[in-house]
Design a protein that fits this description.
The chain is an alpha+beta fold. Helix content is 23%, strand content 48%. The protein is built from one helix and eight strands. The chain has one helix spanning 7-42; strands at residues 52-60, 66-77, 80-89, 93-106, 109-117, 125-132, 136-142, 147-153. The longest helix has 36 residues, at 7-42. Mean pLDDT is 84; it is low at 19-28.
């Protein structure tokens, strides 16, 4: 009787552990987003600002992938915002992450830019640039191996 696992059993165990930990981390990010999304629903954003809830789509111009996108935008300082995104792909995969953005408003239009490292598995560092009004949000995103667009509007009640 062998008390030590074979190499194949040990590798399979490690793969299951890594998969389990990844699912736990992704689920934790998703539940944090759900809390933020729900909380933002109870306090509507200012009429002439980009704070609050957004929903729409993301679309990769590199590989054609696309999916649902939601965001909760929080103002951190005069021209500093934090975008908390939740993206879906093929209705089964989802990913939540934050991006600090610097935004400047002129005549009701906010021009913004920012970036965040989403990790090697997600494509590394992404840069974002776009514009938003109090009702419409458009951004391009670019990483070393992917690029595309975000298009969102305010959700219906």
């Amino acid at each position: 009787m062998n008390l030590f696992p074979t190499r194949e059993v040990a590798i399979r165990g490690c793969k299951h552990l890594i998969l389990s930990m990844t699912l736990v981390l992704l689920t934790a990010g998703c539940s944090a987003f759900r809390r933020e999304w729900s909380a933002a629903a109870t306090t509507p954003g200012p009429a002439k600002d980009i704070q609050g809830r957004w929903e729409g789509t993301w679309s990769s111009q590199t590989n054609g992938h696309h999916g649902r996108l939601r965001c909760v935008m929080s103002k951190k300082a005069d021209d500093q915002y934090l975008a908390f995104f939740h993206a879906n792909y093929k209705r089964v995969l989802s990913f939540s992450y934050t991006v600090p953005l610097t935004a400047h408003e002129t005549d009701g239009v906010f021009q913004f830019q920012g970036g965040a490292d989403l990790g090697r598995m997600a494509g590394g560092f992404y840069r974002y640039a776009g514009h938003a009004t109090s009702t419409n949000f458009f951004s391009i995103y670019q990483a070393s191996a992917d690029g595309g667009v975000f298009e969102m509007k305010r959700p219906g009640r």
